[in-house]
Amino acid sequence: MSRRAQLPPPPPPVEIRSWPDREALLADRAAVLGELVKAHVSPGRLAMLWLWGALCAFGWLLVGSALITFEESYDVISAGIGVILAAVGAGCVVPAVILVVIGLRRDRRIRRLLDAWGGLERDPARDAVLRMPGASLAWLLMSFALCAVGLYTCIAVPAGGVLDGSAYGLAALVMGLGLICWIIGLIGVVKAFAHRRWVLRVLVGAPVPEPLISVGGGAHR
Asked: Is residue 165 classed as helix, strand or coil in its secondary structure?
């Protein structure tokens, strides 16, 4: 694994922290958080997510073409072409799904690290660049648009009678492409909201009500 692909470690426990002063802690915190934020919601990560989605959509396009071939043709040559298309399509869909799952697990680790490093201290001066409002807005708008396209393709196109009721292969192709668009868009929307929630909770520090602790039968804060 390349150095760039590796995530930074979590902050050391309190009892073994060895920063010489608060400024050194804040400098390390800012460097690590900057790396984590870029790994989470940078434009490059959005492009990578869409690339995986495009690979999956291309694979499903081949699989759907194979289904149409099986549905419309009955000779051996057409069946062989359909098998080849289905195999190549599956060879694209499966890796794309695996990459998306790996990315989701990596995002979960990144969010845990963001909480851990962000909770060390407050540093408003350095934290301003970590909010990345432009990048998170781009994630939100582009992902929302992709979700809308996916839902329209999945629901409105088949329900509108555009597809022939007997064209099951074509219907599966269109609805599968719409589902892929919707899932990729939904992932992007969730990431945009997760980043915004982290900014408000950790960087801005919105007040959170303290839990009530029962002591001797009474409720105290």
From this structure: coil
| pLDDT given at position 218 | 43
Nearest of 158, 94, 170 to residue 150 by alpha carbon: 158
**Alpha carbons 199 and 108: distance in angstroms, whole number:** 16
- Determine the Cα–Cα distance for residues 76 and 83; give it in Å rounded to an integer: 10
Nearby residues of 117 by Cβ (< 8 Å), 6 or more positions away: 8, 10, 11, 29, 32, 33, 36
Inter-residue contact 17 to 11 (CB < 8 Å): yes
Band of pLDDT at residue 2, cut at 50, 70 and 90: very low
Over residues 83-113, the pLDDT tens digits come to 999 999 999 999 999 999 999 999 999 999 9
- List the structure tokens of 195: 């980043």
Q: Which residues pair with 219 in a beta bridge?
A: 214
One-character DSSP codes across 25-41: HHHHHHHHHHHHHHHHH
Strands (E), the chain: 213-215, 218-220
Q: Identify the H or E element spanning 190.
A: helix 168-198
d(CA 106, CA 102): 6
Of 11-20, 45-54, 106-115, the range with the lowest mean pLDDT is 11-20
CA distance 87 to 59: 9
Tell me the C-alpha to C-alpha distance, in Å, between residue 91 and each of 56, 61, 78, 88: 9, 12, 20, 5
Region class of 132: left (phi > 0), else alpha (psi between -120 and 50), else beta = left
